[in-house]
Amino acid sequence: MKNKFALLTLLFVLSISALAQTAPPPAKPAADAKLEKEAVELLRETSVEVGRLRSAENRISFNSELASLMWFHDEKEAKVMYGAVISDFKQLLSQFDAQMNSLDAPLDEDSDSMGGIFGSYGRSKVERKFRTSMAVRQQIAMSLAEHAPDLAYNFFYDSLNLISNPEFRKQTEQSDKSFEAQLMKQIAESDPGKAFEYGKASIKNGLDTNHIQLLKKIYAKDADKGVEFGAAILSRLKSDKSSVENIYFYNSLLTFGAANLEESKKPGAKKAVYDRNDLHDIADQFGQTILEGDEELGNAAISYARQIEKYAPGRAAQIRSKFHDSNTSSNTSYVMANAANAMANAANTAAYGRGNSAVSSNANTAYEERVKTEKQMMNDIKDLGTKPLAKEERDKVVAQARKIISQTPGRDKKIVALSLLAAQVSRAGDRELADEVMRDAERLVNPQPKNYQDFLLSWMLASGYAEANPDKAFPLLESTILRANDTITAAIKVAEFIDVNDEYVVDGEIQVGMFGGSMIRELTGELGMASSTIKSLVKADFTKTKSLANSFDRTETRVLAKMLVLRAALDKRESPKQEDPVKAADDDDGSGPPAARSR
Fold first, then answer.
1. What is the pLDDT of residues 472-526, one digit of tens each?
2. Which of 241, 319, 330, 352 is the most buried (most CB within 10 A)?
3. How many C-alpha atoms does 534 have within 13 Å on its Cβ side?
4. Residues 6+ apart with CB under 8 A from 183
5. What angle do CA 17, 55, 163 make, to 5 degrees?
6. What are phi and psi of 457, to 5 degrees?
C-alpha cells in the first residue's frame, strides 16, 4: 500500500497544513451564520466542479463526501444528494457486473496488461475497474456512517446484492470482512450504541482481533456499551472455542483486559470491561488452546505462559512443563553452542560494557534533563496565555523558552514549539514579539521548497503563522502552493508513466476512488486535519482561504482542498485533541535516550 499512497503524498499537501496545536477561540453567532452561508455557497460551487471530473468513480467518491458535509447544514438536502450518489453507484456497478458476466473467462489476463509496480499483473481490465468500484462503495459507506449508521450499514450490504457474478461476489464477501471492522469503528464515532448492535451481530460469525479494536473504540466513546460488548465477546468465547480465529485473539484480548483493569483502579477512572475472574476465564481458555495446539509453538508458548501466569498460574505451569520438555532435547546442541560462544565473548563484552556504561549513563541523564527542561518550558509557555504577567516577566519567559527551543534537536520540533510560543504571546497582546518569535521559525525553513521535507516544514511554518498572525500565513501558503503545483504535476506525470494498466491515473486524472473508503474520510475528518490551522484561517478570512484552495491547478487537488475548508467551516463538533508537542516522539529525529536507540 505504501507505493499507492506515495502517489498522493504531494497531491494532498494542503492536508499537512493542519499541524497547529491549539484551536481558535469560538466565533460569535452572527459570524458563524455568515461563515456557514459562505461555506454552503462554496459547497455548491464545488459540486459543479466535481461534475466536470472525467472519472465516474471520482465523481461518485467526491459527491459522497460533499453530501456528508452538507449534512452539517441541511440533513434533508444531504439525503437527496446521497440518493443521487447511490443511484450513480448502482448504475456503475451494474455496468461492470454485466461486462464481467459477458466474458467467457472473467479472470483471464488482459492481453495488453504488463503488470508493473502496482501489483495488478494478471488481472483483466474489467476486474481492475470492478475493484475500483468496490473501493468507491467503501467511500460511500464511510461517509454515510458519520451521520446515519443504519443507512451506511444497509447500503453496504444491499449493494452486495448487485453483484451477480459468483466469482466476484465471493471475492467481495471475503474483502468485506476486514472493511466491516473499519465501518463499525466509524459508526462507533457517531453512535456507539449502533456499533455495539452491529458488533454483537458480527461475533456470531466468529471472533477475530478486529472485534477487540471495535471494543476499544466503543469503550472509549461509551464505557457502559463497551462493558456490554466485552461481555458479549466473552460469552461467545466461552460458549464456542471454535469461534476464535487464531491464538493471537486470546493474546490481544488478555493484554487489553489486563491493562484496562489496571487503568480502572485509578481515581475517577471508568469501570473495567473485565474483572479478575473474567481475566482468569480468558487466561484459562488461552492456556487450554495452547496445550491442545501444535507443539511447534515452542518459545512462543513459553512467552504466552508468562502472560497467562498472573491469572491462571496452573495453566502456565502446564504450558512450561509441556513445551520445555518437548523442546529440551532438540535444543540441547543449540544451547551448548550458544553457551560456548557466549563464554568466548564474555570477557570482551564485559570490557566493552565497562567502557561504555559510564557514557550511556551520562547520555541518559542528559536526555532526562533535557526532557524535564522542555516540559517545564512548555508549561511556562501555556501560562503566557492563561496568567496575567508583567511585560518584563513575559519577556523573560519568552527569552528562556527561545533559548531552550534553539537547543532542541529536530527542525520540525523547533518550529512546532516556536509556533506555540508565538501563538501564546500573540494572545497575550504582544503581536510584535510574536512576529519576532516566528522569524526564528522562518529561518529554519527553505523559502524555496524542493523536496517533501521542505514542503512539510513550510506547511508547519504556515500553521504557526495561522495561530500567531494569519495575515502572514496567507501569502506564505499561496507562495508554497504555487511552487507545489509544478511538483504535483510532475508527480502525476511520473505516476501516469509507470501506471501501464490505467489503474491509478486515467485520462490524466488520479483515480481517488481507488484508494478506498478511508482515504477521503481521513483527509477531511477522522484525523482532525481540518480542525485547527484551517479553522483559524477560515475564521480569519474565509475569502482568502477559499482563494488558497483555488490556487491548486489540478481539479482533484483543488476539490480536496475545498473539502478541507468546507469541513472546517461546517463541522461544528469538538475537534480531536492534538498531541502535546512535549510528548512528540523523539524517534523521528534520533534524539531519544541513547539506551533506547541502541536497542
1. 889 988 888 888 888 888 888 888 888 777 777 777 787 776 554 455 555 544 4
2. 319
3. 28
4. 138, 141, 142, 145, 152, 153, 156, 517
5. 110
6. -65, -35
